[in-house]
Design a protein that fits this description.
With 370 residues, this protein is an alpha/beta fold. The chain is built from eleven helices and 17 strands. The strands form five sheets. The protein has a seven-stranded mixed sheet, sandwiched between helices. Strands 8-7-14 form a three-stranded antiparallel sheet, with no helix packed on it. A three-stranded antiparallel sheet has the order 13-15-17.
């Protein structure tokens, strides 16, 4: 790696445990030669995550997207699923790849989550579920979404990829709705290199058994294949990384908090710069640092270019809106979700990760403000 590349600050950086801690676990994998198929570390991680996330049940997957696809399949949904266009591609793709139609609900501009006040008008006799997203670690209006869903007899599946370790009113965020999906991708607060999970609030043996079946080709035994499943199993190397990172994730979050607070201190009170609004009911994880430039002296794209020239790779996250993707734009009009469209053109996520120095945060803020 060149000296120039070493000086580049990316929007995120994978959190890693001490090298010897991880490699020490590899000896046991080598000795057992049990590399995948729900081995010892897989089962240990599943148990420890159930306690850490304060949920009733956990099923692990090779990644978050596979987890969400299999969850939608396991729920046996049909017709339409209401979701948000302000998310990562995976959320909507998982719906479409299950043969269902996404219906896009606009977001609110307070926390960029699905606007529950606009939800009910989109429900039809074809609607089978709601798939909201906790964006940047901001929690959806879980009470109102649940009330509406119950009244219309709909499933609620949360994309909780951004909210590892968060709590709402003392409850693990993965305990809301009928089920939640977490991503353990390398860029997340907690990672298992690649990985994902489905959680439920109360123990749900039936759903966990169905998810196990689907992620293992639909196989129930050596002579019985009960359904058309796929391959979504987490391997032992990923599970070992997950166990290591779980020991350190609280310290990762504390370091993220220091970075977040420095941004808030430097950028707070500046006209045209809109920062996250803390929610007193949420135990946060400081996963992202979204900054919205609204009527600021420079627009979002200009700030992005200034930072890039200064060797800082911020991210236009999420841009474009999902309903503006080339694979969907012929089916949807992005102007039908004006708040999502506006946010997609104004928000820039600034670098935030445990090892980011406060001096670098100051330098990034100086470039934003000058």
């Amino acid at each position: 790696m060149s000296d120039i590349n070493k000086n580049i600050i990316n929007v995120t950086k994978a959190s890693l445990p001490p090298f010897d801690e991880y490699t020490g676990m590899l000896r046991e994998i080598w000795d057992s030669a049990w590399l995948t198929n729900m081995g010892k570390f897989h089962e240990e991680l599943r148990s420890r995550l159930r306690d850490y996330l304060k949920v009733g049940s956990v099923q692990l997957f090779v990644n978050g997207h596979s987890a969400l696809e299999f969850l939608i399949q396991a729920m046996d949904l049909s017709g339409e699923v209401i979701t948000t266009p302000f998310s990562f591609a995976s959320t909507t793709h998982a719906i479409v790849r299950n043969g269902l139609k996404p219906v896009f609900c606009d977001i609110n501009l307070r926390d960029y989550t699905l606007d529950a006040d606009k939800l009910e008008s989109l429900i039809t006799d074809k609607t089978s579920a709601i798939l909201p997203v906790h964006v940047y670690g901001n929690i959806c209006d879980v009470e109102k979404i649940r009330e509406i869903a119950d009244r219309h007899h709909l499933k609620v599946l949360y994309d909780a990829a951004h909210t590892f370790g968060e709590e709402y009113k003392g409850k693990g965020i993965g305990s809301f709705g009928d089920a939640s999906m977490f991503s353990f991708h390398a860029t997340k607060v907690f990672n298992s290199i690649e990985g994902g999970a489905i959680t439920t609030g109360e123990p749900d043996e039936k759903l966990m058994a169905k998810l196990y079946e689907l992620k293992n080709f639909g196989i129930l035994g050596q002579e019985e294949v009960a359904s058309v499943g796929g391959n979504g199993k987490m391997n032992e190397f990923a599970a070992a990384m997950g166990l290591c990172n779980l020991r350190h994730v609280d310290s990762y979050i504390e370091k993220r908090k220091l970075v977040y607070e420095r941004y808030m201190e430097n950028l707070g009170g500046i006209p045209g710069i809109i920062l996250p609004e803390p929610n007193r009911d949420v135990k946060p994880n400081y996963a992202y640092m979204p900054v919205r430039f609204h009527n600021y002296k420079r627009n979002r794209d200009e700030i992005f270019a200034i930072l890039k020239d200064g060797q800082v790779n911020a991210r236009k996250y999420f841009y474009p809106c999902i309903n503006a993707y080339s694979c969907y734009r012929d089916q949807y009009d992005v102007k039908d979700t004006p708040n999502a469209l506006l946010a997609s053109t104004e928000i820039l996520t600034l670098p935030i990760f445990p090892d980011l120095s406060l001096d670098d945060v100051d330098r990034i803020c100086t470039m934003v403000l000058n």
